[in-house]
Amino acid sequence: MFIRLFLTYLILVVLAVAAVGALILQRSDGSDLFFELAKQVIVAVAIIAIVAVAPAYVLARRFTRPLDELTKGARRLAAGEFDHKIHVSGSRELSSVARMFNSMTDHLAETFKQLEQDREQLRTILSGMVEGVVAIDNEQVVLFANDRAEELLEFDPGKAVGRKLWELTRQRAVRELVERALSGEGPHREELDWKGPAVKSLVVYVSRLPGPNSPGAVMVLQDTTDIRRLERLRQDFVANVSHELKTPLANIKSSVEVLMDGAVEDPNVRGMFLEQIADQADRQQTLIEDLLSLARIEAGEYRLEYDPVPVEDAVHACMDRHRTRAEAKGLTLDGVALAGCPADAAVWVDEEGLAQLLDNLVDNAIKYTPDNGRITVRWQANPQSVLIEVEDTGIGIPDRDLPRVFERFYRVDKARSREMGGTGLGLAIVKHLVQAMRGTVRVTSKVDLGTKFAVTLPRAKVEDE
Fold it and tell me: pTM score, two decimals?
């Protein structure tokens, strides 16, 4: 701008000199004196113009410099340099414009800073959600996808944005749902069974972005795999409880009907039916007690009173309670302290809870160990914990069933288990009791060779330690 202004001034000066010279020459009468006078006037005008160049340069520079500063400042502001300040010296008006520019820059910087903070906060919130969130435009190009969405839709991490949705997922149901949402109004919801290496259940919500010219849609994905699994477990639990309660009631009812039909008068038959009624009533009572125990443990209402309990005493007391049943089948019950285990080793547990879990493990071993087998209970202690193992020479558990043996009502051989009078809750109670007492339980087994349950519980501190 400065150069243009200065050149304009020079052109005007040249034109002025030329105009003066032309005017003088036009009015001259041709005499040498007048021509000389015209020449002197032109020279004088030229000298004055040359002398005025320096002031003109200074004035032009002084006028254009603030404008140049404003122009440069505007360019840097447009480039995002919000910390740049424009310093203008000159007229009051230009200084006022510069201050307005600086004020506007500060305001824009604060606005952009707040927008960036809001965007980062929103990104953090979306990234931390347990639901997957995907934003797409009208051409199904992914604009945003949080980590959970990449996990649920099995995207390549960090490669979703800018690509078409159909390039990222091969699930036809998801693509069709998005297409319906983009072509219509209102949100769409659908439950999908994800087909792939990892079978899962998803609830997918797709809603168009608001506005008359909607730029796209938002898809929200919720993993309902665990919910569906728990629902199936609940349904199975209700069905199993109903069946387990109905079976003894049916036996009791049929026995009562037979007695009412006249068998009560026959002393040779009456005792058998009455004994059957008593057995089924005991079975039902055991089931109800196990259900109540399991419910209390799971709800945290099972009151645990921690005391140091000698392991050897607890094991031998359990074996004494089950010895009659074991001997009736010809089973051998052994209690063995492993080498190096102190005779006074004790666990820090609830004494009743320890007795219940040992009873369930030994009872389970007696049920599934054939006649003339062996059941061995071993224990070992280290400074922090006590290991108790219950091993039998029973029928064993197939590998495919091992992960599920601690589930409620799960039976490897349902017919045989019911025939033996089991409730299907014993091992579930063991698992929850062990966890409640801050311990662990694991199982190993070989079919036709036997099964071993290993329980680890906290050791009680020795008083002189």
Answer: 0.52
